[in-house]
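Q: Please design a sequence for this.
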């Protein structure tokens, strides 16, 4: 099977710099790494293919041979074109992922470190959480320094491998029978020495900058839900991959509705007359008002269920319901005439109060039995 062009494998131009080749390789290696694609033979082959192309194009001598003679030129000189699967799996941990998996680079190569994850609290109205929302956010992060492309060295210069730790970032100290491994005192764990620091980042390779993003919040999110934005965290060090940004949802209290998962609830004030005689009232929902028919003799506290007037869950499933709890309102600010009418109405019930007020009568019977037992 013929080999693909190494530049096409890494998706870079033939004029690409070493930094551009490394950046593209890190992205593709992350994408096709076997840990992210278990039991995927095609991804494993692409992972190996990327590694092979990277080893050739980041070696100046091999790249020159390849540019002039292609794959045949490398094969004739015994360069490129082959490596074992075990080499690919072991080297990628130090070469790309660094201390993500607890390993530094071996044999004179600098350590790389994944950038830190960030968290952003996004506050939403209930309506925005239920129906989805597009929100612009701004936060501060450590971004890769553009002038030095994250190397920390001034443009035109390059970091050199630390000769104390040979690029490992750590040194081994022998104390009698014991060997202690500690951070290299010369390069402070970087594995490299920067003789000419970049003026912009002062040799750090990263700068603190404000970053703006547009967040697409899916419909149905709730308090505590998190949206993960891969690669939007802090930039890695020494060419390491960036961290992620986690947007945590905070839903503000609503003046009318309370939410419980996919269901909503609210209190609905009903007049004394409507509760007694029945009638239709307008009830608010997140999709607009709907008519609720209240039957006669409705008591305060009765709950009516409006199907599918709740929330469509973000993770799928049926739309929830809206539960309306009736609260019968006692008339206020009555005129003398209205008070008199109520007294007359109450008097008309005296002879048959038990049939008109069953709950009151049951309660009074219970009170009477309580005091009879106590005596």
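A: Design:
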């Amino acid at each position: 099977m013929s080999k693909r062009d190494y530049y096409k494998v890494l998706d870079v131009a033939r004029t690409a710099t070493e930094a551009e080749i490394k950046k593209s390789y890190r992205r593709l290696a992350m994408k096709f790494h076997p840990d992210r694609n278990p039991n995927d033979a095609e991804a494993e082959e692409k992972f190996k293919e990327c590694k092979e192309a990277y080893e050739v194009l980041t070696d100046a001598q091999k790249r020159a041979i390849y540019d002039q003679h292609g794959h045949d030129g490398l094969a004739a000189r015994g360069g490129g074109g082959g490596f074992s699967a075990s080499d690919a799996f072991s080297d990628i941990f130090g070469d790309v992922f660094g201390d993500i998996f607890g390993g530094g680079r071996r044999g004179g190569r600098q350590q790389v470190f994944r950038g830190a994850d960030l968290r952003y609290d996004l506050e939403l109205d209930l309506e925005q959480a239920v129906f989805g929302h597009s929100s612009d956010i701004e936060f501060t992060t450590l971004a890769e320094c553009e002038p030095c492309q994250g190397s920390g060295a001034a443009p035109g210069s390059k970091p050199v491998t630390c000769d104390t730790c040979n690029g490992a970032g750590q040194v081994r100290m022998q104390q009698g029978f014991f060997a202690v491994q500690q951070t290299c005192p010369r390069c402070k764990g970087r594995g490299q020495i920067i003789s000419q620091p970049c003026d912009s980042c002062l040799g750090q390779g990263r700068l603190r900058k404000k970053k703006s993003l547009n967040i697409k919040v899916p419909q149905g999110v709730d308090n505590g839900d998190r949206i993960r934005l891969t690669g939007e965290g802090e930039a890695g060090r020494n060419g390491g991959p960036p961290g992620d940004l986690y947007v945590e949802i905070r839903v503000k209290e609503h003046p009318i509705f309370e939410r419980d998962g996919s269901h909503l609830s609210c209190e609905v004030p009903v007049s004394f007359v409507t509760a007694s005689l029945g009638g239709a009232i307008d009830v608010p929902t997140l999709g607009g008002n709907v008519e609720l028919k209240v039957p006669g003799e409705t008591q305060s506290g009765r709950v009516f269920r409006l199907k599918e007037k709740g929330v469509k869950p973000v993770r799928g499933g049926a739309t929830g319901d809206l539960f309306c709890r009736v609260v019968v309102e006692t008339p206020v600010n009555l005129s003398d005439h209205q008070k008199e009418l109520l007294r007359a109405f109450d008097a008309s019930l005296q002879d048959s109060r038990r049939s008109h007020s069953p709950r009151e009568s049951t309660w009074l019977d219970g009170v009477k039995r309580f005091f009879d037992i106590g005596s």
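Q: Thanks. Anything notable?
A: The two ends are 102 Å apart (CA to CA). The chain is about 30% helix and 25% strand.
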